Structure formats: structure tokens, C-alpha cells
């Protein structure tokens, strides 16, 4: 497996994997293009793909540089340990079923965090899907050193209503909750 900065050539494979893992209409070309740009700062790209020996994308991590993402009602800034301008955002990760449990997600997270730190971030925020099978997403992020700040019920419902997102668990109206979690880049270096 090799980690590479996300490029526009990877978009079809990333969209396919994202929609397979997170549900139909989770990503499309326009949204991915915007997210891709949000991860680039100081000519450094904080989003990555994992590719296998054949060159197939088997995982991705989309991350936003500090100062290049919008706060929303699910951001509990008073609970953050760093100022807003030093907080990056971990938007999305997915790993092909055949590659899960092999350290792909952790490697992608570390690669993104290293670039985000070079872009000026001291920590990264994520809204973790609590209803992932076995709550694996929250367990993985906790193992990386993240701390739980707050739980947000029905975090992705608005995507079902406004973008046609179809949750793999709930269907056309998502009721899943999110764990707002902060990962200190110092904590990640210690893992």
C-alpha cells in the first residue's frame, strides 16, 4: 500500500468508495472538488488516498486546512483546546472492506495530520459517525488520541433533506448522531 496526496484523477474512485461506505449521494464531483480545495494551503495538500499494488484506491482521507472550512451549529468552539484559526477539520475517511483492520485509516490520519500541522493547525476536529458498525469510527478516533467533546443527534439529517443523501442505516432520512471529537496533533505523535 502507498499513500499519495489526493489528485483530481482519483475523484471517480474516491466518490465510488465514499458512496459505497457512507451511503448514496454522500459525495459527488462538485462537492469533492470543493473539499479538495479546502485541504490545500501553502501549496500543501492535506487530503490523501491509499492505493494498492495495482494502483486501485483502497482508502481516502479528506481533511480541511485551518481557516479553510466553515463553522456550523455542530461546532462547540467553547470546548476546543485551540483557537478556531488553529483548528483543522477531518471531513471524511473510508477504507475498502478488504483493507479494514490493516492500519489504512490510521496511516491516512497521520499523513493528513502531518500536513495540517505544516499548514498551521495544532489540532483537528471531526464529527464521527456514532452508528458505524460497532461504533468502530469513534473507537478508532479515540485510539488515535482524540477526545469526545459533545454528541450531536441527527447530525446528517440536513444532508438527507437538502442533498438527497441516503444513509446506509436509516435510508432517505438520516437520524444518525455524531461525536464531535478533537485530536491534538501532539497526542497523535504520541500514539
TrEMBL record:
It comes from the Bacteria. Residues 1-170 form the N-acetyltransferase domain. This is GNAT family N-acetyltransferase. The lineage of its organism: Bacteria, Pseudomonadati, Pseudomonadota, Gammaproteobacteria, Chromatiales.
